[in-house]
Structures
1.
Amino acid sequence: MTVQPAAPTLAEGVRVALIARLTAMGDDELLLGHRDSEWTGHGPLLEEDIALANLAQDEIGHAVLWYGLRQALDGSVPDDLAFRRDPEDFRSCLLVELPRGDWAFTMLRQFLFDCYEAEALPRLARSSYAPLAEAAAKALREELFHLRHAGLWVQRLGLGTEESRSRAVAALERLWPELGGLLTPLPGDLLLAAERALPDWDTLTAATVGRARQALAAASLDPGHDPEVPEASGREVASPHRVELLATMQSVARSDPEAVAW
Amino acid sequence: MVTPVPGVAGGAPARDAAALAAAAWVALRGVKDPELPAVDVVELGIVRDVRAEGGAGPVEVTITPTFSACPALHVIEAEVRQAVATLGVEARVVTSLSPPWSSDDMSDAAREKLRAFGIAPPQRHGGLIEIALDAPVRCPRCGHPDTRLRNAFGSTLCREIRTCRACGETFERFKPL
């Protein structure tokens, strides 16, 4: 028997808002990890194939962390959340759902997500909700390796050949606006920020965009104006990309609903 | 050889909670990380606490993952339970993330075993991980410090791949975390 520490007692509104935030965080990590894993066996070099497989494993592991925190709040089982939930019940953002594209697209996306995590995790590690603070402190240590790796690729692509640069520019053009979707607060986030369970979202947004801009500038890449952060989160909408990704990812689990392991 | 204790059914030795916990620590020395068979979980620093509620158990073992996505953790949990069960008591395993595991938690003995196994051990960093990451790494085969990074990621989440310029050996290094 493995015992998970019980969740602290919370006001109902806070509990519901936390479940929604943890679901979005877990879904982002899971889908990004899955998109990264699509390169396994197809990487441009053996070393990069292995590196990206490691990154994918880390992201999926972090999804398990966030789903595990949700489990302590509502009893939902992480495997069910990942493999037996319908696309319209996922709360991932478009940034992580988009098809993997070329290598530049995959690396630029990973880099933007890593910039967000590099700013979000240290702040979440100071959350008033202790289980979230502890998990964020754990994930933060591992994310250091991601940002170093993706950041180096952004430089290689931006400062490399004419082709690498044009691919990086095209990828950034498509991805940069979606950073706004990643950074859009959920309806319950304001309450959580007031409780100091979440950081101030405007500060986090500015820090993430600033960090990304600085690293992009070092690679001679200019994303243009700041991404627009929409009023309402687009996470409730199941994009065709999310539907396609989950159809593949869940196909084995759904082929035998009675199976407990595969 | 167990000496029968008068008045105890079955002749089981009378022991208090502290003695049971101490016996559990010894039993845990037999549990290896399946991805690092050279070292046991105690010297790796992932056993955080062992508590016995009484001389007859149960025993609660608190462990912490090295990397949160470490696939070996489930195997380690099962083996920890088995090791404690050999003492004839019920075992419970609790996973704790706080404080996060650091490679500084690894004992000197474990570092030496890693080196002998062919894996360069992580430098002690005292929290300055980025400095330790970029510091020179000695080849575990010839001891030369002139080695170069081949890949920041390797066969498991905790390792990177390096090559020694002196002897030509390609080896893995346990990353400072």
2.
Amino acid sequence: MGFADFKLFKIRGGVHPAENKHATAGHPITPVPLADRLFIPLQQHIGAPAEPIVKRGDKVCKGQLLANSQGMISAPVHAPTSGTVIAIGKYPAPHPSGLPVRTIIIEPDGNECWADVTLPYSDPLTLDPDEIATRVAAAGIVGMGGATFPSAVKLNLRKRYKLQQLVINAAECEPYLTCDDQLMREHASEIMQGIAIMMHALQVPEAIVAIEANKPKAIKAMREAARHLSAIKVVSVPVQYPMGSEKHLVQTLTGKETPARALTADIGIVVHNVATAHAVQQCLYHGRPLIDRVVTVTGGAVKNPGNYLTPIGTPVSMLFEIAGGFNEEPSRIIGGGPMMGQPLPDTKVPIVKGSGGILALTAQETAQKTAMPCIRCGSCVTACPCGLLPLEMANRARANDLDGSVKFGLMDCIACGSCAYVCPSHIPLVQYFNFAKGALAEKQRAQHKQEEIRRLTEFRNQRMEAQKQAKRKAMAKRKAEMAAKKAREAEEKSAEAGA
Amino acid sequence: MIEAIFIITLLGMSLGLLLGAASSFFAVEGNPLEAEIEAMLPGSQCGQCGYPGCSPAAAAIANGQADITLCPPGGRSLAQQLAEKLGVSADLSGMEDKEPMIAKIREDLCIGCTKCFKRCPTDAIVGGPKMIHAVISDACTGCEKCFDVCPTECIGMHPLPKTLQNWYWPKPAIAA
């Protein structure tokens, strides 16, 4: 097939950070033994947290539903192994704040006994597209590239948009990470099955798997698996960070730019991560909910970096232990890739559905130079893949002029960090944008609360007024009754007197 | 010459009449700014600003007698909105320190007297006679009306708890 002649389009900006993938590339996926305790946060996705349906002391089977999704955008969580629920309480989240979140803690019994998995069909491709989305939702599958948006919502987009293509994001443009690379090398045919199911769910005629050219073995394996599938194309895309940003990937593949603050679905394309495709296959062919994932454990401080098939809820500290511990004291632990990943406050936090990598970086790797004044060189403007002016946005964010920052395109910033990476003055540009976005959201929340409170107050005032009116009316009625009674009595009296 | 004087006089008179008519037609009663500002205020009549209610407070702001930072439940966002509306620069430095507070009831001390429940201007307290009351934090403005009336002093004012939903990165420190 003519793979070579697939026409690609250039995207602007971007950077080429040192890949550092060699440490783990080609390391086979190793299953991780069960931890003593698994910590399963109820919110591992964008949207509403799940609501537990088990209680303390319950025995659960592997794959059993632990907590139900709440509302349209949410995802359930399942037991990664069989064991006992020993607590449902607060536990630090794998999040830079380290704030406690509601978490179900399971003590494994080591039997790994599965909950009943019955598949009432033989071929998932004969299922109704709606049914596929329903099953994906029930399996708790979320975008595994890190954004953790519930996948079922994205599989149901055909009702609202006219879709032509499914793009499978296997760019893995973040340095250090190789979990998707390894997954493709080892499970290419399963991934293809998953893609076929997703195409069926979305009712699109074709799919493109985009893999960065630095993963030749994954490309080969995937092409091999796609040999008989004419509707699925495996395309090698140039190595350029942030190729894995869905809007930029779509532009590279189709030349079409997603409008500002719109979805790729607006231009007829849905993007799913490659690991998500694998999870979908596991769900539809084997009835397995999302209870484990491949995690790259790497970084200069890790003794034996590698790719590990990790049950959700395994503490990060245990993964580091399995990877042989540390060569030297890591200066920073990061969840995700080095560009967009977030520092973790502690290694006792668990692996969640969106954890693609855990990095323990040395002081040398995280060396941070002090920020100097902006020299207006424009390097950040050249590097910005979204065509924004990071220096202007940052200036306004620093002066707390959030609206000014928005006018310069803050809401179109994907926080890829290319600007901060190239800045010769080491200005923490993307950090300013993260702050500004948070402050803006806070402002909007405050405004929303203000409006809600006004509504509540009005409602209460109306009610009070109605109560007062009712009281007055009742009073008037009683008075009238009393007057009538008195009149009647007077009449009777006068009648008696007359008699 | 005569024609010119005549024309100008006529023009002046007709325009004057037009203006006079317009001023009576489009007459505005009271200060429209007051109504607009009142609509922006929370309307909970909590009195934390020192004025008897939101409407007198709005009048004071419109007349320039009160500071735009007077409304604690409105917080910074309201102060900024008011600054925009009035075209003045907001000095928010005083507000920075004061975090929005919300009321919280200590269940072990609550006797279910319904006093707080009756006074809450936003219906943020739920409960019934001789039952433990609770505050719906999303609806609480932190006006402290309940705080003052509680006979067992079981209501405390606390800052809004930080969660993953409202946490965000602090501003990067500026290197000295």
